[in-house]
Amino acid sequence: MPSTPRFLRRTIGAAALAALTLTAPSAFAADLVVSAAASLTNAFKTLAEQFEKSHPDTRVVLNFGASDVLMQQIVKGAPADVFASADQDAMNRAESEKVVQPASRKDFAANQIVLIVPGDSKLGITSLKDLTRADVKRIAYGNPSSVPVGRYTRGALEAEHLWDAVAAKGVPAQNVRQSLDYVARGEVDAGFVFATDATVMPDKVKVAVRVPNRTPVTYPIAIVAQTKQAASANAFVNYVLSADGQAVLARYGFLKP
After folding, report:
1. What gap in Å lies between CA 25 and CA 9, rounded to an integer?
2. Which of 64, 197, 212, 234 could serve as a FRET partner for 36 with CA atoms 20 to 30 Å apart?
3. Which residues in the chain show pLDDT less than 70?
4. Which parts of the sequence bind molybdate (predicted)?
5. Are 72 and 146 in contact (CB under 8 A)?
């Protein structure tokens, strides 16, 4: 049976990770499993491709999802070598659960929260307070209990005394890309995402408000404690932090931490 091309098998869901590690093709010395926040999807696909060019014996397998969900997967023993979170809380929990190597933890990117609306919206939303209007009925945001963008959103709205009013119209999403999809499909009147996510569908969504946030939106990365690919994991983290890696992240709209 012919082998599957790299670009078709680089990204995989968590349920298939264990099976993949058992059936990895012998052409690669190792699979390096990188569990990364959903907002990093596009940037990390490019980073993985670039990393593989200089490490031809390593195949990078990407597992994307909400940061808290990824952290829980690692806690429960899912294969992973590197964990990249969209906020410090998820990484703090990973560290307290002793599933990452504390000395390897580094901040590698920053972002901003934005409020987006469908590209054809006629509601004229220009401020967070506009979300309390009667004609704004459904608002998407990441579930604060498990999604970093949701925690940032709740914090920003609580600072403006708007959280209860917005939550009453809330459509919680499982990750930031789901919130983006809800807005892009016009299923909600507005939604909160990271600024980098808003650039993914510029023809379907538009930024209505850049949300002030008292907590810096920073992304930490760390090597998983259970890794059996320590050298490759360290090399990948170093690449993300390198000038070349940072240039890739900047291309996708991420800021320096």
Report:
1. 11
2. 212
3. 1-29
4. 39, 67, 176
5. no
- What tens digit of pLDDT does each residue of 27-70 get? 455 799 999 999 999 999 999 999 999 999 999 999 999 999 99
- CA 39 → CA 16, 97, 199, distances in Å? 21, 24, 11
236 phi and psi angles, rounded to 5 deg: -65, -45
- Residue 39 among known ligand-binding residues: yes
Q: Is 176 annotated as a binding residue?
A: yes
Non-local CB neighbours of 210 within 8 Å, separated by 6+ positions: 112, 113, 114, 195
Query: Which fold does the domain 29-110+218-252 belong to in CATH?
Result: D-Maltodextrin-Binding Protein; domain 2 (3.40.190)
End-to-end CA distance of the chain: 45
Q: How far is CA 249 from the centre of its chain?
A: 13
Name the fold adopted by 113-210.
Answer: D-Maltodextrin-Binding Protein; domain 2 (3.40.190)
Q: How many CB atoms lie within 10 A of CB 189?
A: 23
